Inverse folding.
């Protein structure tokens, strides 16, 4: 079964299914301190931090975001939250075919906007990166399919520097 097809119960909190809430780990682990049940609240969570000031930057990011209450808003899907080669178990199939047989490390999994897996699985991607793994991500988690949201998050990342 495709993990992203697990049904999101509307009105329930984003994040871990056990009630652990949303987690954002950029420089350190942050958890939401209030219930998040829509995309607008989630975007606010990503911008809220322990920073003082920066209101103009945060407001500009909010204005650049796509409308959060429209038919074009991203769906809420179940995500692994930490897709990277170390967490993917593969087995050599027939010949040179590799078969994914498991995923490890589920502590960041939960219900998030569909673009968020593309953001999370490229958190380690830097301009000087030589690991071509990032070029072969499946379409469902590829930044190519969520370019606007992915680029916006890269700008948001400067908020945490």
């Amino acid at each position: 079964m495709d993990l992203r097809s697990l049904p999101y119960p509307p009105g329930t909190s984003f994040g871990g299914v056990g009630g652990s809430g949303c987690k954002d780990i950029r420089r350190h682990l942050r958890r939401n301190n209030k219930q998040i049940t829509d995309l607008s609240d989630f975007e606010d969570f990503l911008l809220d931090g322990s920073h003082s000031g920066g209101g103009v930057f945060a407001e500009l990011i909010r204005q650049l975001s796509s409308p959060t209450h429209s038919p074009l808003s991203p769906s809420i899907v179940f995500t692994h939250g930490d897709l990277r080669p170390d967490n993917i178990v593969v087995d050599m199939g027939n010949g040179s075919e590799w078969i994914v047989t498991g995923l490890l490390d589920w502590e960041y999994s939960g219900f998030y906007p569909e673009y968020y897996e593309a953001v999370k699985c490229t958190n380690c991607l830097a301009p000087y990166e030589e690991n071509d793994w990032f070029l072969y991500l499946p379409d469902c988690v590829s930044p190519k399919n969520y370019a606007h949201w992915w680029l916006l998050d890269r700008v948001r990342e400067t908020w945490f520097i």
User: Anything to note?
Assistant: Residues 4 and 78 are 5 Å apart (CA to CA).
